[in-house]
Amino acid sequence: MFKVSVFRRTLFAAGLGVFLASGVAQGQSKSSRVIFLGADDVCSYCAAYNSSLRDYAKEKNLDLEIVTNKFDPAQQASQIDQAIAKKPDVILLWAIDGAALIPSIRKIDKAGIPLLLTDVLPDRKFEKYWKSYSGADNEAEGRLAAQLMVDGFKAKG
To answer: Hey, how many other C-beta atoms are within 10 angstroms of the C-beta on 50?
Structure first.
């Protein structure tokens, strides 16, 4: 069974934990309501991520609702609207399409609901709309991989 890396879980836990602790310090209820909008258990990585998130929420006594879909950004935009209507303490979003969901990300911000992103990082010019991100920087990793290939080819002549 594929496991979500300890590093990834630690990043997520640290971001969510610090955020929720600050809310508790400001007088909010101790049981925070979190809605996670992400991918369905259609792949082993998604299933492991969702399972790990459930385990973390249980461990931390979070009121967690997991809403998934099969990689359909239009459906996820609708799910985001529904999540906003529920007024959770936090929305955790694994954006199915980081570019297509910018209008939805703006809606979350406008509703005053803190947004934490995971796994998919939209264009950083919109980062004022979310509180934190846990996951890889795929563009930076791609640039580094390309540079390593160039260096390797130069070394071989």
So the answer is: 19
Q: What is the pLDDT of residues 139-148, one digit of tens each?
A: 888 899 999 9
Pairs from 126-132 (Cβ < 8 Å, separation ≥ 24): 126/102, 129/105, 130/93, 130/105, 131/15, 131/19, 132/15, 132/19
Type of residue numbered 135: G
Handedness of CA 66, 68, 73, 78 (dihedral sign): negative
CA geometry: angle 95, 101, 62, nearest 5 deg: 45
Q: Can you give the pTM of this predicted structure? A: 0.78
**Both structure tokens of 23:** 């809310």
d(CA 12, CA 119): 10
